[in-house]
Amino acid sequence: MHPRAWFLLVLLGLFAFLPPAAIAANEGIRPLEPESKVALVIGNTHYVNALPLKNPGNDASDMCAALTRLGFEVICKLDLATKREFKDAIFEFTGKITPRSVALFYFAGHGLQVDGVNYLIPTRAAFRVKSDIEDESVQINYLMSELEARQAALNIFFLDACRNDPLTDPVRGYVPMMGLASQLYAPRNSIVAMSTGAGQLSLDGDGRNGTFTKNLLHHIGTPRQSIEDTLKAVSSGTRADAGRFQRQQDPQITISFTDRFCLAGCADSAVAAAAAANAAADADALLKTKTAELNRLEATISATRAKQAELDAQQALLLKKRAELDTLRQGLENVESKQEELQRRQAEVARREQELAKLGADIKASTDKFNELEAVRLGLLKKQAEVDAMRKSLALQQASIDATHKDIATRSVKEPEKKPAPPSPTVVPTF
Question: What secondary structure, in 3-state letters, does 47-87 show?
Answer without folding.
Answer: CCCECCCCCHHHHHHHHHHHHHHCCCEEEEEECCCCHHHHH
